[in-house]
Amino acid sequence: MDSSSSKIDTIDQYIARYSEDQQRLLQEIREAIRAAAPAATEAIKYQMPTFCLNGNLVHFAICKEHMGFYPTPSAIIEFAEELEKYQTSKGAIQFPLGKKMPLALIKKIVKFRLAEMESKARAKSKRK
User: Fold this and answer.
1) Residue 126 pLDDT grade (very low, low, confident, very high; cuts 50, 70, 90)
2) pTM of the complete model
3) CATH number at residue 71
4) Containing structural domain, residue 76
5) Where would you tag: which of 70, 104, 124, 127 has the fewest CB atoms within 10 A of its CB?
6) Nearest Cα to Cα of residue 22 among 69, 71, 64
């Protein structure tokens, strides 16, 4: 990663800081998320690429040995069986670098998060 401390405002700027191979992986993840959530907007939150729709949908970030994917604890619980072969924590999934990214699974998780956020938005609008 580029060691400059310049502020990152866009996902393009985030991706540009990495090697060509890493850029390709980041772009694959970005495109998978965009395909699953075409109405979502892109942002940088917590210094990570983030997709938003009615709040934060998912974040992702490249780390030394893995691609971090942050879909919230509810998504990790929902897809626990499919995520067994990956390192997970309360709100994060680690996809090892050097292995094919599970893009179909990422899309499923994003669609789950979309439904979850839409449900929360509907419930919130009913309370008003």
Assistant:
1) confident
2) 0.90
3) 3.90.1150.200
4) 11-127
5) 127
6) 64
